[in-house]
Specification:
11 strands, CBS-domain, 3-stranded mixed β-sheet, 21% strand, flat, alpha+beta, 2 domains
């Protein structure tokens, strides 16, 4: 297990939260929300009312699911956003919010004061606290073994369906036995936006939107190496490969959070 230093864990959550969070209003549509997600790079967006009260939350997976169900770019987010939002108060300490994040299995929580949105805290904010620490914990001990993957000739549509059905935010792309790329839900959403919601383009191969070269770790690397690579490259997960570039697992921010 990784322990947060006591003087840090007792500090207010606003000391590590993003106090200039991206958000959308409840009357905005999918198209505007997608632009906000892409410009901010955040996968989880709070939804507020006109007076800045927190009324909902959306992830890019919610939007991908909505598009698969036939909703259009003009659909208001209030029609499908999550209304029962798990949030934290600005007065709560880091240790308490961490436990709330772990128990709720959310990737991030809005920070509110008198129910008005003032910030957002994510798994990455907690992991950032651990940068430059060495843990003597090999990646292989905490990674997800035998992760789901797709091939480069998988259509973007089938990739999108797989993500929505499995709730995996990123999928390694394997050709033969080698990892040649990785694709995230944000990559899919960006493609949809760039092609002006021409959903027939989703029949194209996922190879055209995958990220390469792939940032990775081995199962013998320390968890601290994974943290450093994730933070340096602003990514939430890494394939774990062996000497032959074969996929052995995947390690994500969630896996590291569970260690704290």
């Amino acid at each position: 297990m990784i322990k947060l230093e006591s003087d840090i864990s007792n500090e207010s959550i606003i000391n590590i939260a993003n106090l200039s969070p991206a958000y959308v209003f409840d009357f905005e549509n999918i198209s505007n929300t997608v632009k906000t997600i892409i410009s901010s790079g955040h996968r989880r967006i709070p939804v507020v009312s006109k007076n800045n009260n927190l009324v909902g939350i959306l992830t890019y997976m919610d939007i991908l699911d909505a598009l698969l169900r036939g909703l259009t770019r003009n659909t208001q987010v209030s029609t499908f956003m999550t209304r029962e939002v798990i949030f934290c108060e600005s007065t709560e300490d880091i240790k308490f919010v961490l436990q709330k994040l772990k128990l709720s299995r959310r990737g991030g929580l809005p920070v509110v004061k008198n129910m008005k949105l003032i910030g957002m805290v994510s798994e990455r904010d907690f992991i950032r606290i651990l940068l430059n620490q060495y843990f003597d914990i090999p990646v292989g001990r905490v990674m997800t073994h035998k992760p789901f993957f797709i091939t480069p000739n998988t259509s973007i549509l089938n990739c999108m369906k797989t993500m929505v059905n499995t709730h995996y935010r990123r999928l390694p792309i394997v050709s033969g036995k080698e990892v040649i790329g990785i694709v995230t839900g944000l990559d899919v959403l960006q493609f949809i936006n760039e092609t002006n919601y021409n959903l027939t383009r989703l029949n194209e191969n996922v190879e055209s939107i995958m990220s390469t070269p792939v940032k990775y770790v081995t199962e013998h690397d320390d968890v601290s190496d994974a943290i450093r690579i994730m933070l340096e490259n602003n990514i939430g997960g890494l394939p774990v490969i062996n000497e032959e570039n074969m996929l052995k697992g995947i390690i994500t921010e969630r896996d590291i959070i569970e260690l704290i």
